[in-house]
Amino acid sequence: xxxxxxxxxxxxxxSELWRLRESPEKFKWFQEHPEPSTPALVxxxxxxxxxxxxxxxxAEFAVAPECDRRTKDGRxxxxxxxSASDGKSIISRADYEKAAExxxxxxxxPFVKKLLDGEHEKPFYWVDDLTGEGCKIRVDCISxxxxxPVIVDYKTTADASTDGFTRSVINYGYDFQAGMYCEGVEKVxxxxxxxxxxAQEKTAPYAVNILxxxxxxxxxxxxxxxxxxxxxxxxxxxG
Length: 239
Known about the structure:
This protein is α/β, with parallel strands linked by helices and 239 residues long. It contains eleven helices and seven strands. Strand 1, helix 6 and strand 2 (89-91) form a beta-alpha-beta unit.
């Protein structure tokens, strides 16, 4: 399943629910006015693709040629490239090389390759027991280690140190993600999973840190999930 197929499938996703923390009004606005992709989002998606699904990178991304668009030949070459790349995400050569270097560094980090030895970009769908709302998640990787399912989530970050990334967990709702993802995997598989972050800095030398979400973080995230899915359900019921 491609990212686009997942986004258009039934169910409320983690990224959609996270919008509700601001207000139902803003949630509705963003549903009706999808944000265009930014270079930063394309870069992050490219690193994910090269790390998790490198064999299908060329089907979804196109690397822009290095040509001088101030000249006629350069403009012609670029326009031909854009025509041939219709429907793909465009990434510069410099960003592609950086993304490839980051993915390679991550895989060379001890234990990361073992963590990622599972099923990549796997969707899970379930119906929430309390609200009856359909939910969905798409995990970067679901592995089995020591007979236990492990959700592995890859994040690019400015600071992969334990203290620095812990701040990002709170600021960007990664605890909420851990809680919702663990809930979804347990509902579908019947097994309670562990949740592990692989955090990597976006500047050289692209340092990597592995951090497991403890029970307190997962519980906090689940509590946020319960609050947001409740708001979402109430809004649907009351209009």
